[in-house]
């Protein structure tokens, strides 16, 4: 995609935002639009950018002196003084696409799965003063004029909304929607597969058309959510995990060796991700590991080394893992490219741009 594409999405989001301004800004939105109104409409973007700066090094966050003087004391330690030309906040005020490029690329890289994306927005909404409404709770008496709220379902969907200062039951609402799921390959409920030609294989299933030719020969990692039990209390909780290096690859045969892969492969037997080496199926020394859990347990149905690796990442034991919802993702970080760095090279752009711009 190009920065111009990102700019169009953000412009469309800003246009939709104008429908929501009466509910968000109250009386301020009743007067004709002025330059001040346009700057006010960008306040949510400024707050989002400030929240993003809080997780970065100061060197990545240059701001000019006038903008620095407008910051709250809690925001000032996260920035460094710079010239107006490099000021990130001035770029937001001017509506420059470049102001959004790095935050968007970081968002793509740091939130590869739907569960990470929902967790990301939950944090941003909390920073912006939104309050959680549990999906199973009774909301009667909890919604107030001017209130800002969010709720989530299954950790894979999120709804945020504001109540206008003058809202009355029966009035209309303005809504922006986007999706955060992406084409991928998810680990099967039983992801253990027999070794093939000395390679440890991983059982996966395509989601929304994944596992096609664009997935071949890529550096694939694994991420998602894991259900674990606390050995001391017996309580269960959901934890997020993403491995920071490539774990799997779907290798292809070079076309000059023969038929190759195109149009000939069986996705169940010949387009399977490999995650390690084990020569036991070739008559060599048996280097395979025993199941990571007792018979009948979830861990016993998954590759033992993978279970132990996920357990180490979560700083728990393999026996504490009760279930997981994991998927493959391209580990290549999002970045700009082209002669003038006018392109954004990344996976999952279509899906994540919808939610990030909204």
Automatic annotation (TrEMBL):
<dbReference type="GO" id="GO:0006508">
    <property type="term" value="P:proteolysis"/>
</dbReference>
<dbReference type="Pfam" id="PF02127">
    <property type="entry name" value="Peptidase_M18"/>
</dbReference>
<dbReference type="InterPro" id="IPR023358">
    <property type="entry name" value="Peptidase_M18_dom2"/>
</dbReference>
<protein>
    <submittedName>
        <fullName>Uncharacterized protein</fullName>
    </submittedName>
</protein>
<dbReference type="GO" id="GO:0070006">
    <property type="term" value="F:metalloaminopeptidase activity"/>
</dbReference>
<keyword id="KW-0645">Protease</keyword>
<dbReference type="InterPro" id="IPR001948">
    <property type="entry name" value="Peptidase_M18"/>
</dbReference>
<comment type="similarity">
    <text>Belongs to the peptidase M18 family.</text>
</comment>
<keyword id="KW-0479">Metal-binding</keyword>
<dbReference type="GO" id="GO:0008270">
    <property type="term" value="F:zinc ion binding"/>
</dbReference>
<keyword id="KW-0862">Zinc</keyword>
<dbReference type="GO" id="GO:0000324">
    <property type="term" value="C:fungal-type vacuole"/>
</dbReference>
<keyword id="KW-0378">Hydrolase</keyword>
<keyword id="KW-0031">Aminopeptidase</keyword>
<keyword id="KW-0482">Metalloprotease</keyword>
């Amino acid at each position: 995609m190009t920065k111009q594409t990102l700019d169009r999405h953000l412009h469309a989001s800003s246009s939709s935002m104008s429908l929501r301004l009466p509910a968000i800004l109250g009386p301020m939105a009743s007067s004709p639009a002025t330059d001040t109104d346009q700057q006010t409409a960008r306040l949510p973007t400024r707050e989002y950018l400030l929240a993003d700066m809080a997780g970065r090094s100061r060197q990545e966050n240059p701001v000019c002196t006038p903008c620095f003087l407008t910051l709250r004391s809690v925001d000032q330690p996260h920035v460094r003084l710079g010239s107006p030309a490099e000021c990130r906040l001035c770029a937001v005020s001017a509506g420059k696409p470049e102001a959004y490029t790095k935050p968007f690329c970081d968002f793509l890289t740091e939130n590869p799965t739907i569960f990470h994306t929902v967790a990301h927005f939950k944090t941003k909404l909390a920073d912006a003063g939104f309050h959680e409404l549990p999906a199973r709770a009774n909301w009667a008496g909890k919604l107030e004029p001017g209130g800002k709220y969010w709720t989530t379902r299954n950790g894979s969907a999120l709804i945020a909304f504001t109540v206008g200062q003058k809202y009355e039951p029966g009035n209309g609402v303005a809504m922006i929607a986007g999706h955060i799921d992406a084409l991928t390959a998810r680990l099967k409920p039983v992801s253990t597969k027999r070794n093939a030609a000395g390679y440890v294989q991983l059982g996966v299933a395509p989601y929304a058309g994944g596992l096609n030719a664009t997935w071949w020969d890529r550096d694939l990692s694994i991420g998602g959510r894991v259900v674990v039990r606390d050995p001391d209390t017996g309580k269960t909780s959901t934890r997020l995990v993403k491995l920071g290096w490539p774990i799997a690859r779907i290798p292809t045969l070079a076309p000059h060796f023969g038929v190759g892969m195109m149009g000939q492969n069986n996705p169940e037997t010949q387009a399977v991700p490999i995650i390690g080496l084990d020569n036991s199926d070739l008559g060599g020394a048996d280097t395979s590991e025993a199941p990571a859990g007792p018979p009948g347990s979830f861990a016993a149905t998954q590759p033992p080394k993978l279970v132990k690796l996920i357990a180490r990442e979560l700083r728990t034991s393999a026996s504490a893992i009760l279930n997981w919802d994991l998927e493959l993702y391209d580990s290549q970080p999002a970045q700009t490219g082209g002669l003038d760095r006018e392109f954004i090279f990344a996976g999952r752009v279509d899906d994540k741009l919808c939610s990030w711009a909204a």
